[in-house]
Amino acid sequence: MVSILASDQDNPDGSKSNGQGKDSRSSEAQDHSKAPVAPNGNKAIPEKSAAQKNEKPSGAELKKRAKAEKAAKRAQSKQGQQAPPNDASKSTKPENKKLSDEKESIQSSPQHPPAKLQHRRSGSASASSQRPLQLRPGQQQAPAAEPESRKEPQKLAFISHLYGIPRRTSIAGAGKDVHPSIFALGLQMSNYIICGSNARCLSTLLVFKRVIEAYVTPPNNSLPRDLTIHLSAQIDYLKSCRPLSVSMGNAIRWLKLTISTIDPDTPEHQAKTKLCSAIDNFIRERITVAGQAIASSASSRIQDGDVIVTFAKSSIVERTLAEAYRQGKNFQVIVADSEPLFEGRNSAIALANLGLQVQYASINTLSHFVQDATKVFLGAHGMMSNGRLYSRIGTALVAMMARDLDIPVLVLCESIKFTDKVALDSIATNELAPSHELGFVGTGVGKAGEEDEWRSASNLVGLNLMYDLTPAQCIHMVITEYGSLPPSSVPVVQRLSTNT
Amino acid sequence: MASSSTKAAAAAAQSSLTTPPPEERPSSPPKNKDNSDFDILATYTHLLSTTPTLTMPLAAIASLIKLLTHSPPSTTSETLSLLSTHSAALKRALRNPIACTAGTDLFQRYIISTLQSPVSLQTRSTGDFTTTRDGLVASGEQFVARAQEARGVIATIGGKLVQDGSTVLTAGDSRVVSAVLDAAADKGVKFRVVYVRDSGTPSSSSDASGVGGDGMVARLRGKGVAVAVIGPSATAYSLGKVTMVMVGAEGVVENGGIVSRLGTYQLAMLAKSARKPVYVVAESHKFVRLYPLGQYDLPIQQTVLDFRDRTDDADEGNVPGGTGEEKRSGGGEGDEEAVDYTPPELITALVTETGVHIPSAVSEELIKIWY
Asked: Of A92, A124, A149, B161, which is least packed with CB atoms within 10 Å of its CB?
């Protein structure tokens, strides 16, 4: 809950005084968002008309100040209201309202500083006529009023289909069927504590095991039918935290298929044990052993004197490099990294701790160090059926540059990450992360004040895409547990791995 | 099989740098750990030299079949271990084991899948292993016989690519290419051939013997096909008049690239930049489970690039250790036997007995065999 903490500290009306646990805090944020709705509707119209009438900057400024004061007052009064504990029935209803509000403005993620801003923004939903005022000098003096007219310009038209519902960062409003461990997992995923295709798939399966263990078939229903529905609720919750990864999608498809093949007459505990052991087997076959196979075949590609470039963090690349090092090969590793997640840092540190010769560099210096490289090893988020690699944003840049210099690019990818989808560009399919994360997550330099600055400029749009697509011709080889293949053979292996 | 005139292959086998001295090899075969006095290498080289139509992978398969008849194994696992040890021995003994690997791997996969087939399991559960083994040997021989027919099929398919008025540029003495061209000539297609002479042959002895290609040139001329013989340095010059480039291959690797006689890569590069289609004609048993990332990633030690001064041979003798010998043998056969790797981007299509494929189809075929 990094961002929530940040916004709490930042909050001028003192909501940071709530030192409770995560859950209470998030429900509190919930409350903030809910409360202003009613007064808001009354306020919005006079405010807007006043603003429209006032052509002079000084008038507008005065208005804004008055507004800010009002907002502060309201927030304070709400602070008082808030003290009694929130009951669940209250919070579920406004959640919908909140979500619809947020749909309209991308930056209104739930961790947004509460009452005041929330109110302003929702109040100005239709107040696009106010926009010119924003550019006037008075603006700086009343920053609280700024978000009012900022909704529309924050969306980029060419990726408008990616905005969707903003990520969930609290457990508020979740269905009653969702298992507590799924709540935890969802939060870990949306905060990148569990990050990476493999880790997410693995943790999802492990948590599903717990869900299955805790599951009790309702009377007059059979496990194969009802468990799938029960799991769907869990999956929907996870989806609302962060879109599912390709590997998770494949694993879930497999799990549902496995559940549906269970004989309805099987005793419940037996069916559950069977499912859990099937999940264990699946993890072993498709992730653990597949990883070993890939690591051993990929490490045989590393020769003495090689300089291996890798990008960000991939568990399987890390494993391969460690394996090659264990075999006594003498090579050097360059870990390229970039925002927004800077996952490569962990990778670089882990490899350096093992004893490898590691160099860590930002992707900005890529053109310089890629010239020394002899091979490029890339991890994958997904392999598309047309042979393209869907991976952490920045990967395509590395692959293209390596291709340009005729350096072999090897993709290490378990067959669980293969998908039958095709992708032609990284715009049609992608994941859009909250744009404020661009400057904050992982860097440690981001302060809450900067976040506000980022949000305050109406003509500044953050684009935080998570993935990009590497063209197939930039990939020399895809190493899977089925062996090494050219990217064009991805559909063959995909068929093979789903049939067996 | 661009470079694989059988003599050359035999020479390669004999002059390989493994432990037993070459001159001793035919008489005293390298003893294998298990049972046999069977010399897989001698059988292999003998087969290659006596049957000129046999390709290297097929010779390897035929040798393994002979092995099974010579020292009959009595159990399944014995069969498999016998095959794998002898395949490994053969591969070790050869300087360039790529083509032979295609054959031995294919045969081992074939044996395993045959043994795993339900019919085989049934017979094994009832009868003794002798029946199974005999069945293996028989079907193996059948496989070799069928594979040898592949060339004829390719000639029919590939012959259609050669059309009236076209000019085909080829290099090396590929038997498949010459079969294709013969087939086209026999059909009465009016076409011309540009034959790129081997760089190993000095230009002075251009029309003299020495290169296997002469046979093909003479035969085509006999059929009324106009043939121009050029040196390798005239390739780029001639490409403007050429309709297509057709080459053979020693092995077709997993990504659809080929391992072939040295010079094929540069020929393909030239053809690509001249925008001429490059067709590779090769039997599908030359598909090998190998995936080189580049020229220097082949499982062969080649001495093509030699930075040492070759002018003073006197000093050469003084070089201590095995380097001098290696150098000499490398220098002697390096040009003739060396191979290069042509990446799939440079290849327009592969003509096999199963049809005309794009390079990426190779991996599919190989996956089908292996999984």
From this structure: A92
Q: Choose among A375, A477, A496: nearest Cβ to B291.
A: A477
Domain identity same for B227 and B365: yes
- The three-state secondary structure class of B193 is strand
Min Cα distance A424 → chain B (Å) is: 19
Prediction ipTM score = 0.77
Nearest to B330 by CA among B16, B65, B47, B113: B16
Q: Chain A closest CA to B290's CA: distance in Å?
A: 9
Can you give the residue range of the structural domain that contains B365? Answer: 151-302+338-370
Domain endpoint, select from B103, B131, B148: B148
Residue B1 forms part of a structural domain: no
**Residue to substitute from B105, B289, B293, B295, interface A, most A β-carbons within 10 A:** B293
Q: In what order do the strands lie in the sheet with B349-352?
A: B226-230, B192-196, B167-171, B244-247, B278-281, B349-352, B355-357
How many independent structural domains does chain B possess? 2
In terms of domains, do B61 and B102 share one?
A: yes
**Is-cis flag, bond preceding A340, omega within 30?**
yes
Q: Strand, coil or helix: what is A337?
A: strand
Which residues in chain B have Cβ-Cβ distances shorter than 8 Å to A410? 293
Q: Do residue B134 and residue B171 come from a single domain?
A: no
In contact, A285 and A415? CB cutoff 8 Å: no
Work out the pLDDT band at A375, boundaries 50, 70, 90. very high
Domains of chain A in start order, with CATH, are 166-290 (1.20.120), 302-431+466-499 (3.40.50.10470)
* 3-state helix vs strand vs coil in chain B, percent to 5: 55, 10, 35
For the entire predicted model, the pTM comes to 0.73
* Residue B120: Cβ-neighbour burial (10 angstroms; 0-12, 13-18, 19+): middle
CB-based contacts of B103, cutoff 8 Å, min separation 6 = B56, B57, B58, B59, B60, B61, B64, B285
Q: How does strand B349-352 pair with strand B355-357?
A: antiparallel
β-bridge mates for residue B227, sequence order: B193
Which has the closest alpha carbon to A436: A420, A418, A421, A450? A450
- Tell me the shortest Cα–Cα distance from B271 to chain A, in angstroms: 19
| Structure confidence by residue, pLDDT tens digits, A51-83 | 444 444 556 666 666 666 666 666 665 554 444
Note the pLDDT tens digit of each residue in A297-322.
999 999 999 999 999 999 999 999 99
Do B339 and B358 meet the contact criterion of CB atoms below 8 Å apart? no
